[in-house]
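Deliverable D2.4 — example input (structure tokens):
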């Protein structure tokens, strides 16, 4: 595993574009630190400081930071599809196989890289969230600090699942631009199918089925926190209540898609004439 990971990291670090995109992927989550210190002056009447609104209190901070950090995953998604696109355009995939790398090892090297970067991103986000929370939070009991840290697990699984999907699309399209286009097409298709099911059946059935779709299931791991923030400010508004927890079955669904995407990537490579 270490050998395959080192091989892939060496390829990425020798590519200037990949290095820039990886750097951006890891730096952007630090914008949460900047946002936490922003003070907005409303024409001298009052000053709004995001850190003083309570949104960085434990345990809600885990929900907020993981949700917003997940929006930056597209930068590393470009790196993932580029890993495959460059292999085909530069003919290095054929050379790797000639040099003794099996097709299974080739796919595993990509997957190990995905897991590695997802783990690093999760660790960085954990440290960032912990620092902000310790500074701003009104609660410092260890039990409260550690509660809802399942959002970090959800964030990690979400990244691995999404990047594995990009890996499969990269193998399918063999070109970075086409792979990203297929990603957008899948997003549109999921909503078209949702609309058709709603038309033929009802919204409740359509939503239950939609929750098993690739992109929707990944989104469900960390739901939007805006209603939750509103609930904390207006606790008497029962209409704002919703299920924002990270559920085990949602993690299982994404893990299932991840395994399927990696397997299909291997099958595509195995059957393809290089």
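Example output (designed residues):
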């Amino acid at each position: 595993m270490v050998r395959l990971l080192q091989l892939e990291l060496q390829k990425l670090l020798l590519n200037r574009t990949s290095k820039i995109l990886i750097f951006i992927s890891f730096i952007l989550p630090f914008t949460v630190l900047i946002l936490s210190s922003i003070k907005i002056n409303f024409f001298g009447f009052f000053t709004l400081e995001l850190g003083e609104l309570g949104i960085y209190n434990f345990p809600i901070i885990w929900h907020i930071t993981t949700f917003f950090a997940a929006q930056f995953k597209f930068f590393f998604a470009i790196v993932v599809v580029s890993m495959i696109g460059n292999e085909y355009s530069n003919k290095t995939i054929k050379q790797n196989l000639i040099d003794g790398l099996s097709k299974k090892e080739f796919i595993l090297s990509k997957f190990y890289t995905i897991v590695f970067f997802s783990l690093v991103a999760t660790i960085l986000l954990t440290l960032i969230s912990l620092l902000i929370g310790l500074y701003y939070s009104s609660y410092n009991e260890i039990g409260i600090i550690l509660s809802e840290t399942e959002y970090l697990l959800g964030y990690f699984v979400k990244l691995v699942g999404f990047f594995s999907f990009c890996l499969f699309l990269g193998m399918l399209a063999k070109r970075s631009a086409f792979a990203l286009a297929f990603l957008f097409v899948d997003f549109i298709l999921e909503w078209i199918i949702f609309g058709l099911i709603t038309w033929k059946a009802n919204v409740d059935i359509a939503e239950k089925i939609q929750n098993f779709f690739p992109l929707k299931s990944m989104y469900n791991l960390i739901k939007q926190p805006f209603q939750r923030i509103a609930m904390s400010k207006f606790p008497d508004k029962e209409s704002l209540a919703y299920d924002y927890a990270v559920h085990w079955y949602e993690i299982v669904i994404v893990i299932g898609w991840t395994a399927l995407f990696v397997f299909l990537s291997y099958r595509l490579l195995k059957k393809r004439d290089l």
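Residues 2-271 form one domain.
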